[in-house]
Design goal:
9 helices, alpha/beta, 358 residues, Ribosomal Protein L4, Chain: A
């Protein structure tokens, strides 16, 4: 069992509190503490460093002089990295250095950092550190009375009204920082040489590590007290009540805009409609159909022409004019009968020369 001394504000030793190393993991995991500290420091980096390359620096792209026959070194542009005021090669560019650790690794790293303070005798407890108003001299006098001359991290129970008084009183002291016990992390514990906890903060820490009791958190910082939206949505993790109020305001503004447009449209005078175009003087009225065959010269309305009337026949009576009409079929001549009855005509076969008469 380890012992942590307890002092009052005047520096008088009141006793000691016992600490079981098993409450804080039993051993100090140095590699885990180092990894956690590196990640915490990387998360504090802005990553906004930037240099200009040869395509970003000011200067002309014109070739300073011709390639050959000058006696000088060949060069293509004044933005060359080997020239003064030229571009920078392989320089830093904006990037994100942030990293993340699982919750169990964060807690194990913090436990190792606290255990190292208890083992090295660099931790102390103060019986009570309550102030009526912010007073830097009171905190400075308490640290001097306890014997703390190095950098110090003051841990209070929670960030309530009493904790805020301690924070306001200690923030003007060099190399002194204050944090609620629920906000302790491995980097801050290792960054300061000494660790000073109030009696209430130490009791809450021991109950959390030994009995599993939650650390005290003010209602304003309790995640369960305020409902937040999903961080990946458009609201970007805002409180649900704030998002709801913004949505109602947008809907109200849209309804007012629509009502204003409708009122302006109703107040606007309507233009008179143009008169319909007059019907044509000549022609049947609209919707009236002409009788079939009306307007055609020749037969009266409704009378059909006899079939084939006016069309020339394709027989011998057609004459030369009918034979020469476009697309008219040619008359078919009958073939002479074959055999002995054919006579002289049968002998006059196709291609044979005609015989002379008697």
């Amino acid at each position: 069992m380890l012992e942590v001394p307890v002092f009052d504000v005047a520096g008088k030793k009141l006793g000691a509190e016992k600490v079981d190393p098993q409450w804080f993991g039993g051993i100090v995991r140095r590699r885990l503490v180092h990894d956690a500290a590196v990640i915490y420091q990387n998360n504090q980096r802005a990553g906004t460093h930037k240099v200009k390359e040869r395509g970003e620096v000011a200067g002309s792209k014109k070739k300073p002089w011709k390639q050959k026959h000058t006696g000088r070194a060949r060069v293509g542009t004044k933005r060359s990295p080997i020239w003064r005021h030229g571009g920078i090669v392989f320089g830093p560019h904006p990037r994100d250095y942030s990293g993340a650790l699982p919750k169990q690794m964060k807690r194990a790293a913090l436990d190792s950092a606290l255990l190292s303070k208890f083992q090295d005798g660099e931790a102390a407890l103060v019986d009570s550190l309550k102030l009526a108003k912010p007073q830097t001299s009171a905190v400075a006098g308490a640290l001097e009375a306890i014997g703390i001359k190095e950098s110090c991290l003051i841990s209070i129970e929670q960030a309530d009204a009493a904790g805020r008084m301690v924070y306001l009183s200690a923030r003007n002291l060099p190399r002194v920082h204050s944090l609620p016990v629920a906000d302790l992390n491995a980097l801050d514990v290792l960054k300061y040489k000494r660790l000073l906890l109030t009696k209430d903060a130490f009791t809450a820490l021991v109950k959390n590590r030994r009995d599993g009791v939650d650390l005290p958190v003010p209602k304003s910082k309790n995640p369960a007290a305020i409902e937040y939206t999903h961080p990946n949505r458009k609201s970007r993790g805002k409180p649900a009540e704030l998002v709801k109020g913004e949505k109602e305001a947008r809907l109200k503004a849209a309804a007012a805009k629509i009502a204003k447009a409708a009122a302006a449209k109703a107040a606007k005078p309507k233009k008179p409609k143009a008169p319909p175009p007059e019907a044509k003087a000549q022609g049947a009225p609209a919707g009236e159909q002409k009788p079939k065959g009306e307007g055609k010269p020749g037969a009266p309305a409704g009378e059909q022409k006899p079939k084939g009337e006016g069309k020339p026949s394709g027989g011998p009576e057609r004459g030369a004019a009918g034979a020469e009409s476009k697309g008219a079929p040619k008359p078919v001549q009958p073939k002479p009968p074959a055999g002995p009855e054919r006579g002289a005509g049968g002998a006059e076969s196709k291609g044979a020369p005609p015989k002379e008469g008697n």
